[in-house]
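hey can u check if this looks right to u? its 163 residues, i copy pasted from the old doc so theres a chance i mangled smth
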Amino acid sequence: MTTFLTSKKHLLLALGFLKLSAGLAQVAPTATPTTSGKIPIDAARWYAQSNSPNNITALFDGSVTTGYITGWGKLIPSYDTYYTFQPGEAMSIESIRFYDGGSNNTGDPMTISVITNAGQRIAIGKYLGGHNYSWEGPNPSDLYNFKLPAPVSNIRALVITAT
């Protein structure tokens, strides 16, 4: 998960960046397979409306020690990056953890939201940083609790809002 990802701290949520305890399932007429733990994310599917020449695929390489820069001179300093689910995919999020890579850029928070199947946008986590080289939870006032107040399901898209 720093200006939008000068270091991976903003997005190394253990989905490469988001460590969500979730179920990702393919809907089928028979049994529905689920996974728990790190969500399998196709990093090439993230989309952002910006003039940045780089996308965020490097945030999903599994490394918490290498930095990442989306570009300089962005026309839109704060923007959303979207990950939409394909037909038949489903997810339920129970917890999130963000990795603070040590850059102490607390002036540029990052927010993780979901867009539900009903079109409602719900913020589920906020990363502020300032806690060098540690994992942080989605609530800045309770840093070491990675669980959400309640699981979130019926998700159509993940949204990262960052600067």
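DSSP finds no helices and ten strands in the chain.
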